[in-house]
Amino acid sequence: MDAHLQVGKNIDDDGREKRTGTLVTASAHIITAVIGSGVLSLAWAIAQLGWVAGPAALMAFSFITYFTSTLLADAYRSPDPVSGKRNYTYMDVVRANLGGNKVQLCGIAQYVNLVGITIGYTITASISMVAVKKSNCFHSEGHAASCKSSSYPYMIIFAGIQIILSQIPNFDKLSWLSMLAAVMSFAYSSIGLGLSIAKVVAGGGGVVRTSLTGVQVGVDVSGQEKVWRTFQAIGDIAFAYAYSTVLVEIQDTLKSYPPENKVMKKASLAGVSTTTVFYVLCGCLGYAAFGNDAPGNFLTGFGFYEPFWLIDFANVCIAIHLIGAYQVFCQPLFSFFEMKCKRRWPNSKFITTEHILNVPFYGEYYINMFRLVWRTTYVILTAVIAMIFPFFNSFLGLIGAGSFYPLTVYFPIEIYIARAKIQRFSVTWVWLKILSWVCLVISLVAAIGSVQGLLTDVKKYKPFEMD
Q: Which InterPro entries does UniProt cross-reference here (predicted)?
């Protein structure tokens, strides 16, 4: 029987609950996952690389990400991409096509990366919340006021919101949150673009220093700093495209007809092309506005004064977007761990029992005590780690470097070679391997630069000091 024939009103082709995702919801998930806090660091990244290498790196990463996402989309069902057996997670895809130790390697790479991203989003959201408080303080107390503020209370607030949202049972129920987050991402990116254009026009083009090669050795940085910053900038750009981690899980929300792989390819094209346009505009216009002095978070570089309400709104949009993006990235981790525990302890009532709770204006809500305890504990742990290491640029660069090669490049290429039975040393095999090795080198240098940046940040860091 064709896998896409309707088999029941509420039952899918594999006996599970019927999926309701569409091209629009999948595109929203992708945009929510891709246009994240990475967009905020792109002006800084372009400043390190310059007018030539900066935009070229953005375009290269976007092309590679889209190309490998199409390879991964075809692997969602096995062995046939249209009527084969569904693979619900990235690990399932690797298991079905590669097997062996690569399944464990994929799991480590994917879930460590998901943890890192949720920590990074906690840091970024708190920075935006602090920016709102500072902006209002300067507006009411005057520009000379001492408006120092700690990010820790805002990390706690962010974690509290995530504890509540984490009780959403599964990824398929997150479409409304992704839609809202996607709108927020467009809003703050557009505000950043508008402010950048206004600053360039007001500055007359001669106030800031830009160059073809970025920050200048001997003027802005030392030769050693230039190298480290270049490496870290590549990591930041890699982080900006880090959505392959959840690509299979997003595809698993799509309705079984039309074929998921075809819809997912369209969603990837829409998501990646839309975000690339925003990235190039935000990165290049941000660099034009601030020059070689571009800040790590380009929205905070416009100061906290006027128009204070617009900057406030942009930072609120960032916080709301990251609230949704956090869930997009942590839900696959939640599902994986809970599934493992259910298989390990199938007779445990604490793990398996669903209690019915009547919620006003909502109806019946199924609450699971294990889900409540484990997800709450996870959110608290990520918030604590974010408090210990609140370093924006270096942290994003390290996450990007760690996830880009294995999840965006290596596994999709290896899966395609295995599925298509590409012969060793054939032309296709050779150029795919060259692409894979080049991306490995890029990820390694980005990781080295980001680790060096983290070490530098740790030396300067004074815990619990107000910024």
A: AA_transpt_TM
Domains in the chain: ranges and CATH = 23-460 (1.20.1740.10)
Decide: helix, strand or coil at residue 98. Answer: coil
pLDDT value at position 205? 47
Per-residue pLDDT tens over the stretch 188-220: 878 888 888 887 887 644 567 888 888 888 777
Given a cut of 50, whether residue 114 has pLDDT beyond it is yes
Of 155, 156, 123, 94, the closest CA to residue 398 belongs to 123
Q: Is pLDDT above 60 for 464?
A: no
Q: Which H/E stretch holds residue 280?
A: helix 260-290
CA distance 64 to 400: 14
Contact 226, 60 (CB under 8 A): no
Name the token pair of 413.
């290429």
Candidates 28, 40, 319; CA nearest to 192 is 40
Backbone phi and psi for residue 356, each to the nearest 5 degrees, phi listed first: -85, 130
Average pLDDT (165-189) is 77
Residues 6+ apart with CB under 8 A from 45: 54, 57, 233, 234, 236, 237, 283
Pairing between β-strand 85-86 and β-strand 77-78 as defined by DSSP bridges: antiparallel
Task: Record the pTM.
Answer: 0.80
Strand partners, 217: 221
Q: Provide the residue type at 102 as one letter.
A: K
Dig out the tokens for 55 from the structure: 């935009």
CA–CA dist 393, 404 (Å, integer): 16
Element (H, E) at 77: strand 77-78
Residues 76 and 3 sit within 8 Å (Cβ to Cβ): no
Is residue 160 scored above 70 in pLDDT? yes
Q: What is the mean pLDDT of residues 139-154?
A: 78
pLDDT higher than threshold 50 for residue 7: no
Express as a percent the part of the chain with pLDDT over 90.
20
How would you classify the pairing of strands 355-359 and 85-86?
A: unpaired
Whether the bond between 79 and the residue before it is cis, its omega within 30 degrees of 0, is yes
